[in-house]
Amino acid sequence: MARLRRSPPGAPRSRVPRAQQPLPQTGQAAVTVALLRAADGSNPDTYYAGLVDALNDYARRYQVNTRLRLAHFLAQIGHESGFRALEENGRYSAPRMREIFGCRGGAARYDRALDDCRLGADGQPERLRPKLWLEADSYAGNPERLLAYVYANRLGNSDEASGDGYRYRGRGLIQLTGKDNYAAFTAAHNAHDAADLRDFVAEPDLVMSELKYAIESAFYYWDARTVNALADLDDLEQVTRAVNGGLNGLEDRGARLASIKKALGI
Fold first, then answer.
1. Closest listed residue to residue 30, CA positions, set 57, 62, 3, 11
2. Cα separations in angstroms, 238 against 60, 70, 177, 180, 232
3. Whole domain around residue 23: which residue ranges?
4. How many domains does the structure of the chain reveal?
5. Which residue, among 216, 238, 217, has the nearest Cα to 170 in the 3D structure?
6. Phi then psi for 187, rounded to 5 degrees?
7. Is the pLDDT at 7 greater than 50, yes or no?
8. 39 within domain boundaries
9. Structure pTM?
10. Which of 12, 21, 62, 124 is most buried, taking the most CB atoms under 10 A from its CB?
């Protein structure tokens, strides 16, 4: 009768699951054109070919270094931006700007039929930014004025007159927003690449004008919110909350994640 083989004393009883095994650090790239197409099919292969080197470089630098972490990262970026460097537009009609920015509690507290916020306990509309009603002509269709107002005195920005809200508007593959975040990204970038010191506070447009920085800003955003730990748990909802602040587009994010996992063999 055949005897059962036993592992030698001290040997691990099980292997690390493939999904959590480290990605290659040299040689074969982890991110490929085919993998990006699995994440998002809207761009041509020639465009994706121009992204893979930067994606692989920053994935190593920011420890997105297992198949599971990479799958979640690519699924979220695919949904958020389709791997395109985007810039917050801010050119809204009066009703739309009031819906997005006007009410306490966010867009859910906006009543489209009344073009106003829902009533609070005092029977009055719960307006967070009343100037979007009182001075609508100054802000509707005017991104520079609108974003300076709605992001004033937040996220490290100074007051409306400073223009910081517009200057540090959302940019990148995931929207990097606010002076504090541009400063933190500067510190993270310089710590990871001392040969390419940058000041994104002084030059915020770099996050759009050079694609590599738009890509890196997404990895910074991911790292700053410690999303790797949530990806390790394979928790799509918590990853989405960390990236999005809610569960917007969860079904699409999940579909992209499933496609990427299939391509990665996990």
1. 57
2. 23, 16, 21, 24, 11
3. 18-85+209-264
4. 1
5. 217
6. -65, -40
7. no
8. yes
9. 0.86
10. 62
